[in-house]
Amino acid sequence: MTRSINITVIGAGSATFSLGLVKDLCLTENLKGSHVTFMDIDAQRLRNITGLAERYSRELGADLRFTQTTDRQAALSGAEFIINTADVKGHHHARRVRELTESLGYYYYTPSALGHFYNFRLMLDIARDIERICPDAWLIQSGNPVFDGTTLMTRQTNAKIIGLCHGHYGYLEMANVLGLDPSRITWEAPGVNHAIWLTTFMHDGEDAYPILDKWIEEHGPTYWDTHVATRTHDIQMSRGVIDMYRMHGLMPIGDTPRLVGWWYHTDLATKKKWFGQPWGGPDTEIARPVHVSVLSERLAQMDAAIRDPAVKVTLVFGQTRTREQQVPIINALSNGVAGCFQVNMPNTGGVVAGIDHDVVVESQAWIDRGGVHPMRPARSLPASVMRDEVLPKVSEMERGLEAFLMGDRRLLLLDILAERKTTSYDQAKMLLEAVLAMPGHEEVAAHYR
C-alpha cells in the first residue's frame, strides 16, 4: 500500500544531499504523490535546487510536488517528516577558525563545545517548533554534530528524533579491499556517532576477521606503501586504522579513526604516515580544501544545468539510488516497508551497555510502521574501547551541552584544556578569548558569559 507524504528539508541549499534525496524519492514507487518543501535562507540556492528537482521528477515521470520557502515555520506546517541537514556557518567559517587556532599553536583544531553553538541553537529551535507546529512528525537529523545535537534535542523536547550518519559504510570499503561480496556480509558497529566499532563482521555466516588478519599479513604492507587515495575520506584500510585494530581488537569504522588516538594526528607528516597519500586523511590543511572544492564543483554543475533547459538532468546526475537512509526510513515508517538501519537514538533499555539511557547511541534498529525498535548488538564493546574511546567522547559531549545550556564560559575553557594539543593554561585561555572575539562570533561571546 502506498501513501503520499509531506517532507520538509531544512538546509535544502546543500546541493548534493537535496538532489540525492529527490532521486531516492523519484525511484521509490510507493512514495509517489509526495510533497517536498525545500527550506533554506539562501533564496538563490533554493530556486536552483527546486528547479532541478522539478525537472528531474518530470524526466522520470515521477509524481512529486515541490515548494520552496525561506520561512522555517511555514515549511514545518503540515510536515510529516523533517530532514535537517543545515550547517549554520559552513565550511569557509570553519576554515577561518582553524587558521586562527593554528596561529596559536594548535594543529588542525576547532574547540568542539565552542564550535557547535550555532548548530545547537538551530537544532533546538527546530525541535521546539516541531513540538508546537507538527508534533506527530519525525525529525531526521542529518547534519553534524549528530551525537551532541540529537542528545540535546531528545533531552530538551518531546519531538520524535533519530540521527543519521554515513560512517557505518566503512564496512563496505573493507569488503571491497578484501574482495568480499557485501550482500553476504553480516555486521554490527555500535557505539556513539564518530566512535563506532565493528563488533560483528561475518561473511556467509562465518567470522570474517580472520580474512582481515590474513590480508594484513600478506597484503597490508604493500597496500600501505602503494595505495594512493582518490577521495579524502579513503582511510578505512589505512595503516593507522589497522594499528587501532591491533590495539583494541576491533576495527574502528568510518569517521571513528579521525578522532581516535591523538598520536596519529599531531602534524601533516604524521597523518600521511598513518592515513596515506596524498592527503593524510580528510582532516588536514591540504585535504579539506579538496573536499570543499568537490562540493563547489557540484554547485557549479547545478548552476550550469539550471542555465541550460535543454540539459537532461537525469543524464547529469544519474538515475541510481544513493546509499542515504532517509528515504528508506521514511518509507518504512509511512508505508511499512520495514528494514534494519544504522541510526542514532537514545540508549533506552541500555542497547549499548555502559552508557546512560538518556545519551544518544549509534547502533542498528528495526524500523517499521510501528516506529523505531532498537536492536541489542550480539557483542558488547570491550572494556578498552569503552574506557579509552567511547566514554571520553560521551564526557566531552556532556561538557559541551552543559556549557551551551548554562552559558558557562568556564566549561569552554575546560574543553580546550582537555585537548591534547594544549601545552599550557595560558595558551588555552588565549585561544578561547581569540575565538570568542572573532567577527561573526558576537552572539557566541554574549551567550557564554
How do the helices and strands line up, and which of them pair or pack?
Layout: E1 6-10, H1 15-26, E2 35-39, H2 43-60, E3 65-69, H3 72-76, E4 81-84, H4 90-103, H5 112-115, H6 117-133, E5 138-141, H7 146-156, E6 160-163, H8 170-178, E7 185-188, E8 191-192, E9 195-198, E10 200-203, E11 206-207, H9 209-218, H10 220-226, H11 239-248, E12 251-252, H12 268-275, H13 287-307, H14 313-317, H15 326-335, E13 339-346, E14 360-368, E15 371-374, H16 383-406, H17 409-417, H18 425-436, H19 442-447
Parallel strand pairs: 1-2, 1-4, 2-3, 4-5, 5-6
Antiparallel strand pairs: 7-10, 8-9, 9-12, 10-11, 13-14, 14-15
Helix pairs in contact: 1-2, 2-13, 6-7, 16-17, 17-18
Description:
There is one protein chain. The chain is α/β, with parallel strands linked by helices and 449 residues long. The protein has a domain at 6-164: NAD(P)-binding Rossmann-like Domain (Rossmann fold, 3-Layer(aba) Sandwich). Helices cover 47% and strands 15% of the residues. It is built from 19 helices and 15 strands. It has helices spanning 15-26, 43-60, 72-76, 90-103, 112-115, 117-133, 146-156, 170-178, 209-218, 220-226, 239-248, 268-275, 287-307, 313-317, 326-335, 383-406, 409-417, 425-436, 442-447; strands at 6-10, 35-39, 65-69, 81-84, 138-141, 160-163, 185-188, 191-192, 195-198, 200-203, 206-207, 251-252, 339-346, 360-368, 371-374. The strands form 4 sheets. Strands 3-2-1-4-5-6 form a 6-stranded parallel sheet, with helices on both faces. A 3-stranded antiparallel sheet has the order 7-10-11, covered by helices on one side. A 3-stranded antiparallel sheet has the order 8-9-12. Strand 8 and strand 9 form a beta hairpin. Helix 1 packs parallel to helix 2 (43-60) and helix 16 (383-406) runs antiparallel to helix 17.
